[in-house]
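Appendix B. Chain record.
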Amino acid sequence: MTPQEELLRILVLRSYLREAGRQFRLASGRLSDYYIECSLTTTYHAAAPLIGALIHGLVPPDAVAVGGPTMGADPLAAAVCYHSARTSRPLSWFSVRKTAKAHGARRWLEGSVVAGDAVVVVEDVITSGSALVDAVRKCGEEGLRVLGAVVLVDREEDDGRARVEAALAPLGATFRALFTRTELEYAWRTGRQ
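Structure tokens predicted for this chain:
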């Protein structure tokens, strides 16, 4: 089994929540017949090395750090940082706060980045893409050069991917999703976990 296949298997077993007749309320307030609780995978010991290696492989060579909206992106960024420390391309990590720090430097960002750094923004799951778009904006306000964005799972709803790609286009940045909801659903339905 490849690392990508193994991570998909873990995601379906741990994070793809679906029960006959049950509805899940999304952050948007909308109801859905499934829910993707990525933190059950991203904080799992067997998934962290896979996440680190797979995302690290998608980061352009001139990037120096990865990070994204806290809390969803934090385990991803930490896994990439840890994995990368054993490679010829080490990467630091950072978090994008929901609100600017009210004291000290009053920054949007926490972690090992400074103005001028080239970064990749990561996120666990996108639906509308608004948290990721907001993180890209905040990175720009802090003087970071965003080279791309990588998400663990694209729910393929609410034009999330299109919104993220539109925010990245003026920067010449790329968007990648390791998995789509369609892939999780197929693996769940066919018992490939």
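Further analysis of this model is presented in Appendix C.
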